[in-house]
Specification:
This protein has 549 residues and is of the alpha+beta class. The protein contains 13 helices and 26 strands.
């Protein structure tokens, strides 16, 4: 089952063709992705009629699968007993029709392929659902409806038209909230296993609060089928939420950032101190989820519980935020911080003289840049932030990885020399055309270039605000001595404002308890909670640095 979709990604990567229109009321569109590339679309409608349930769809899958479903329909009784499945399709240029009728324990199928008619009769479970082995997924709406009441560990009979009977084993379910442009969708994610004769296929099926399918995923085949509102770039999974969270739009340079503002449960009528959280490198959303750890989302919750208004936002070009990430430098990201500060300072529930910016990893450098230009920032927090140049931190990370590889000293040095040549090409703009295409694509962007050229020694000297440096002692991405370097730089400032350093034993770069702190350990960590020692250190410092007035 689904084997037809396990195709070379390069062959499948193309724009999805437009399906024929579906006339039924309430039709919704799904996009079908293979290996992250859209390969097709399907329109699906589920309707309750006097005679029972009808699931109808039309759709297309592009080459090399090359299937057009002019109409696929499945009928069930009001109690979801299968009645009939019909399919009118073209597969690689050949017309095909299927009509399967279920009566009691008998499923009779009539097939016509390229004008050749055949028939097949099978004995089936009277409660069997009807699914297809092709690349169309509207029949899974019947399974989605059953999942509302199905218990974990139970199994459902399925007739795979027209091949034969299989079973679907129901796994655990978990709740999930998805924010779309129109509303918050309360979703339920259920793990299922398709039990075939010779194999088992693990999948996940998401349903909304009405029991309708919103997403179907087969990770082993890189297959995703996603409803249009959920697949939109304006939608996001809400990893962390609080009862009084609100979405905020932050006007920036020609576009808007979108984020979450968290408030204390008992805010009262007074103006409160506020914090802007700044995410690290790469495509970080507002929660900065890395290996299941929502770093900024959890920090925001802890700070809001402690009495602060906290804003975190999707980086430009990520999630619901506008703008383009590929052309953004660290300086551009610092302007986004300043735009967020302005929004906070203009709020009636925020004390504009008590606003801090706190950045994680690369975000600490961005916070320093913003603070050097914006005196509305009253304090700066640096969490796991480099204390050496960006070029040096990248080399340090590379050498850490090389130290754990079985290479000769000469081989290791060759890799270091190659990395230095990449740095020179990126920083000077000379020799980029000589880099391998995959390397050039990954390094030829404004963020990486500005990171390589960043120098905390120059940044810190222009920051007049009090500083907090928080560092995990098991951090192998930004090693603990970086905190010492930042402290030394801060103390060299003229009329040096206060600086405080907190090192937390047993904590890695993601601010969670770890054993080795190495990056290859992240995926195996059971504890996904940011250390309370880290969040308490931030809270204590903020209350001391931004005291109640």
């Amino acid at each position: 089952m689904l084997a037809a979709l396990a195709l070379p990604l390069a062959a499948a990567a193309q724009q999805p063709p437009v399906p024929p229109a579906l006339q039924e009321a309430g039709a919704t569109s799904f996009t079908i992705f293979l290996g992250g590339a859209p390969i097709g679309t399907e329109q699906i409608a589920v309707n309750r009629l006097a005679a029972g349930w009808t699931i109808a769809s039309t759709g297309r899958l592009g080459a090399p699968i090359d299937i057009v479903a002019r109409r696929l329909q499945v009928r069930y009784t009001p109690e979801w007993r299968a009645v009939e499945l019909t399919l009118d399709a073209t597969v690689r240029g050949q017309a095909q029709t299927i009509r399967t009728v279920v009566e009691g324990t008998t499923a009779k199928s009539d097939l016509v392929v390229a004008g050749q008619a055949t028939g097949k009769t099978d004995t089936v479970d009277p409660d069997a659902l009807l699914l297809l082995p092709t690349g169309f997924f509207s029949p899974y709406e019947a399974l989605a409806a059953h999942l509302r009441t199905a218990a974990a560990g139970s199994e459902m009979p399925v007739y795979l038209v027209p091949q034969g009977s299989i079973r679907v084993r129901i796994g655990e379910s978990s709740g999930e909230q998805i924010q779309t442009a129109a509303r918050m969708v309360t979703a339920r994610r259920t793990h299922i296993t398709l039990v075939l004769t010779a194999a088992q296929i693990d999948a996940d099926l998401w349903t909304d609060d009405a029991g309708r399918m919103i997403r179907f995923s087969v990770p082993a085949q890189s297959l995703e089928v996603v409803r249009e509102d959920i697949a939109a770039v304006s939608s996001r999974s809400v990893t962390i939420s609080r009862p009084n969270d609100e979405q905020v739009n932050i006007p920036s340079n020609g576009f808007s950032l979108v984020g979450t503002l968290s408030r204390p449960a008992q805010a009262g009528g007074t103006r409160l101190p506020a914090v802007v959280l700044v995410g690290g490198s790469g495509p970080a959303d507002r929660d900065s989820v890395v290996f299941g750890v929502p770093v900024l989302g959890q920090i925001a919750g802890a700070l809001a519980d402690a009495g602060f208004i906290v804003v975190r936002y999707d980086k430009r070009g990520i999630g619901q935020s506008g703008g383009r990430a590929e052309s953004a430098s660290l300086a551009d990201y610092s302007e986004d911080v300043r735009a967020t500060i302005k929004v906070l300072a203009d709020r009636k529930d925020v004390d504009p003289k008590r606003i801090a910016a706190i950045g994680h990893s690369e975000g600490g450098l961005v916070a320093l840049m913003a603070a050097a230009k914006d005196k509305r920032i009253g304090a700066v927090g640096l969490i796991a932030t480099p204390g050496i140049t960006g070029a040096d931190i990248v080399l340090a990370q590379q050498q850490r990885l090389l130290s754990r590889m079985k290479l000769t000293p000469e081989e290791k040095q060759a890799k270091v020399d190659a990395q230095k040549k990449i740095h020179e090409a990126v920083m000077t703009g000379k020799g980029l055309e000589l880099l391998p295409p995959d390397v050039r694509r990954s390094v030829d962007n404004a963020e990486f270039q500005s990171l390589l050229m960043s120098d905390p020694a120059k940044l810190v000297q222009d920051v007049r605000q009090p500083l907090l440096v928080v560092q995990g002692e098991l951090d192998t991405q930004v090693e603990p001595e970086n905190a010492d370097k930042l402290e030394a730089l801060a103390r060299k400032r003229k009329n040096a404002p206060p600086v405080e350093v907190v090192k937390v034993p047993g904590i890695n770069h993601l601010l969670v308890p770890a054993t080795t702190g190495e990056a290859d350990e992240y995926g195996t960590l059971k504890d996904k909670q940011v250390s309370q020692v880290v969040t308490q250190a931030i809270v204590t410092w903020l209350k001391k640095t931004l005291p109640t007035r």
